[in-house]
Predict the structure.
Amino acid sequence: MPNSSCPMLAVADLAKRYADVGRPLFSGIDFAVAAGEIVALVGESGIGKSTLLNCIAGLETADCGSVHIGPHALDMVRLDEAARAALRARNIGFVFQAFHVLPTLTVAQNIIVPLLLARVPSGEHATRTQALLERVGLAGFADRWPASLSGGELQRVAIARALVHRPALILADEPTGNLDPRTASDVLSLLLERVREQRAGALIVTHSQHVAQCCDRVLTLTANGLA
Amino acid sequence: MRRRTFLATPLLLPTLTRATPGATAVAYPPVIPGARLTFPRDHGAHPDFRTEWWYVTGVLDLPQRDIGFQLTFFRSRPGTAEALDSPIAARQILFAHAALTLPGDRLRHSERAARANLGAAFSSEDCDISIGAWRMRRLDRRDGEAFSLQVNSPQFSYDLLLTPTQPLLLQGEGGYSRKGSRPELASYYVSWPQLQVAGFLVSDGKRLAAHGRAWFDHEWSTAILGDGAVGWDWIGINLADGGALMAFRLRDARAATVFAHATWRDAAGHVRQFAAADIRFTPLRLWASPRSGGRYPVQMEIRFGEHTVRTLPVLDDQELTTKRPAPVAYWEGVVKVDGSLEGRGYLEMTGYAGRLTL
Amino acid sequence: MNTLAWWLIRAQFRTRRTATLLSMLAIALGVALGYAIHLINDAALADFGRAMKTVQGDPDAVVGARDSAGGVPVATINAIASDPAVLVVAPVIETRVRVNSVRTPVRLIGLDVFSAAAVMPWLLPRQDDRSTTGGILDGDVYASPSLLAKLGLQAGATVTLARGDREWLTKIAGDLPATGPDDLLLVADIAWVQERFGPNEAVGEGRVRLAPEVDLATWRTALQARLPPGLLVRAAEDDRTRVSNLSRAYRVNLNVLALVALLTGAFLVFATQLTAIAQRSTQFALLGVLGLSPRMRLLQVLLEGLAIGIPGAVVGLGLGYALAFAFTQILGGDLGGGYFSGSTPSIVPQPAPLLGFLALGCVASLAGALYPAYLNRVQPLAQALKTGFAQSRAAFSARSRWLLAALLALAAFVLAQMPPLFELPLAGYAAIALVLMIGVSSAPLFTRALFGWLAKRRLPAAQQIAIQNVAQAPLMAQVAASGLIISFALTASMVIMVASFRVAVDHWLDHVLPAPLYLRGKATPLPQELLDALAGTQTPFARIERSAQETLVIDPQRPSVALLVRELERDNPAARLPFTGPVVAPPADMPVVWISEPMHEIYRIAPGQTLRLPLRGHDVEVFVGGVWRDYSRQFGAVAIGRDDFVRLGGRFAPSELALWPLPGQERLASDWLAPWTDRYGLELADSLEIRQLSLSIFDKSFAVTYALEAAAMLIGLFGLAVTLAASVWLRARELATLGALGFDRRMLGRAVMVEGALIALVGLLIGLACGVAIGGILTHVINPQAFHWRMALTIPWPAVIAGALLTLAAAIVASRYAARQATRLPVARVLASAD
């Protein structure tokens, strides 16, 4: 269980320029996400939401600033590539718009992947997976292949996968973007419930007003920084 | 008498030649009494006869106490390739056998075989026989005659010079030595006891100076073994007082003596011959060979005339076994002799490990 | 982490079964060919060595004459025997005799049983205590069991042994129990053999066993210094080296070909893995985002490569064993190369080479996976997660690519000019590798040029789109083309080399078979009686030329050189010998020889120089008058006129006759000869038969080469199919979009097929160009350096073009496989999963 006294994510003075033109994409980004807090990040298309998310996840390198993640407050910006991968594996859960459930693995295997990456002892895999599958309403789906699942079901698998290794932080990029409104609503409430339940922090990039409204706090990325 | 001829030749040759002598009808000359031997011519080979051997045994003195050496060259004319007119035809075959007895250790031995003119050579004019680098020859030196022995094998080697201290000893009747009840069972037999040994031998990579006394035998014949004999016992002893003793007996299948003879030359040079009736061989102690199973009377009492001597081997295991061409085992080694006469020399016993088939 | 790797490998195998199996098969083929060649050669060498050991024993050294007709005087044998360093010298006379007029001559070994026991125990007759008659010393002979079986004889049989017109009536007294099933031998006493067949007062050679403490090299040097010049001391090691040298070049050549097969296997792994990572770039990106370390993203692809390589190599080992077994049964241990005749060796796998070839298969698959693994490692995660596999822009500009190709071409040219290394054409092989690299690296240039040009043409929309696709994304096209470039280049080059060789051999046979009829004594001299009869006036022949053959040892570590004694005119040898260059007139007082091309190259002797020939115990200085072409004696031959030979002390004992029947009397000529051939077991052949036999031997010796070519082509086609199919998947979105825009499946399929055909065309064109270049290198560099055979380059255009068309057709069929994938794309789904 993450320590609730310190933030799960603390971004300070983060800046990123366009690689080709050198014009700043964003700069001076400062915010924090506390344990159990769900923050929405909104903004116009192309404003750099995804890049900001990538910088936080260590998939892209910020030009300056710091991104402290998790109970040990490791700075993603200062780590090398392998350490960033390890930090992601232990402390971050991801939910994507396009689900990105591995089609060649079964539902259960997909959920076990983060446990393997976080080096959770294999004895816990089955119980944790089973428990989470029940929590996301997919009990009995363990041995199904992703190809046979609907979009909503796939995203539930993705949510289970994002939470299974009990990360400090959940990063979600348009988690309901590919779902019909009704399924989107179900999936979103599931996601929020589970995040709160695990007392993780969450940062959700979204265009959806509805999604933003369901969050504890809304950050808007503009050309002048966060608002 | 030099017994290995009977071992080597007949056992090797059945596969190589016609065993039935009539088939080739080789006219071997007979051994007859009264023939005059002349030297050095008769030290050389007599290739017309069926078999011939030159045999040297010796025992060394301090610091190589009781080390024994033996070198024998056999010449055989088995009757093969008599029709072939080629210098390398296998009409004359030579075998050589060398051994070294190290008291308290073991016996080493080595052998060679070759046909004359192809790896082996002999002279009919004087003693000079060789197989490869092994050679036995008589030398005429400024200070008198001598025999030179050269042997080298992977196990040991020696290079010795033997100088006579006494005249030749013609066995039997002026060299005509009977081997059985019938007169044709006989050989020409010349001995030269009490040869002084000088030179060196190499064993286990160590070069040792050699001094001691040796015994030279030269014997040639066409027919020896008869009267149902299956083996024999023989001694040739250089006596401590300067005398020489030779005695042999032929045994039949029941170990009974079928023929025997002894010659004793005393220190003053008087020679006495003893007939079969005057000689008795009595086994005192048997040694059983772990290899062949043969039980050899290594300690033997020999009575001849008024004398009684006993043999005492410096090493019990002086048995020789040869795998090729056929398994053969016999005992030939250094013994000390005590009793009414004392000395050192060689004892040979054959026919104890399985029957000797001819 | 292992669990995940294993899941991914299993998933990979499940979803890409065909491509994975094909890659495995390619690796298996490469390993199989290499391993089979190794096994066969190993077995043949072991067999040859064993046969040699049976006959020669295991002496430390051998003293022999340099010329096959010479001998070692008995006095020399005795002198060596009395050397204290020598334990025993076993003298031997070896000759060939015919048994009871059976045509094929048999080895007769005359030995001395007393010394043979120590050196050649395997040749000793069976010891039979019960035998009461006969004996080797009395002139009986002993035969190997296999010879007895072959002749249908039994111990006790009376036989006539004949060599030329010398005969020996004797008895087979028994057998030679220690000889092997391939040893066809007779053993007799050396004195009897000498008496019946010679040589007088000499023996063939003396085999020496030295005392254990003697240093062989020192002893040998000392003895060689004492020996007359005609005698030579060979160490046992020389014999091993010679045996190994015998087929070394041929073996290396085959092994290089096997390596090429393995290389194409590695290439296929490359293609498979490249497409695999391209297809799964999103998945790998996801795993990377989820925290899979960069090292594992690299390792995973390598592991997958290994997962293809290990089973492939294991299957290859089994296949190689089967191939080796089959080949030895059909072609014999020399793979039809003609080096070790008449034996069917048994194949015995040893653990070290087994593991070696297993490792080779794994290395090949790892090498193939290396670049894809690297690409996977450096994929930008965020981008790959969104848009899939990102084809990195060409690292080199077109200009630098041209420059690179030009530099490589220059390097290849320089390598092709280099002399052999370790007597092997290693630089030539490197040049071939470079040519292949040029071909592969120039593929994108040509692809882009061709497709760019085509894209500007007015074409039906489907084709237009296919072409634009390729022009824009050349990586897959390059991969697909590369496989074809390599495989077609190699195949074309082999076809060109073999054709050049065959044409050259054909011309050469014209020249060396001038007479209509040939009569041969098969390594035994012809009977004098026949020669006398032919010298008479009442023969149906217009012209008769006699020749004899001996062998000479010039260098004890090399196979011996043939000495051909022929009725040549000193002034006009070109009438009978196919000279490669000018013929130099010899000084009047010097004997002249003409050397073969291999002799010229191996011993570096040129016309106008002199050569010391070991003849009849002397070193004779002779003048080298010219170099003639010889495709039959790879290790060199010297031709000498009969008159010069006799003047040098040689005894001219003809073993072969070239016969020109009188016009119209051809039938009569054969009838005239028939009684002689029957009586003496001679071989009469007309030049046409010899010619056909020679060419069929030639074709047989290239059988393995054809097998390798077929394998290479197959692998190339696999590669094309796999990469095309993968590129279809990669462009699934584009194709699906096209489908949504109204292209029907048939049109999509056709577009893919057009694309495949165009890529194949580019590959074949480049491959052909490379093939001609490699064919040239094979013909002008590899063949002369490895085998000392020179020939003109002849390109069999019809065969090459037919091959190209066939491959193109096959490529189109292969593209259909990819096109089917295109038509099966779940359009809606693909589109739905897009951003």
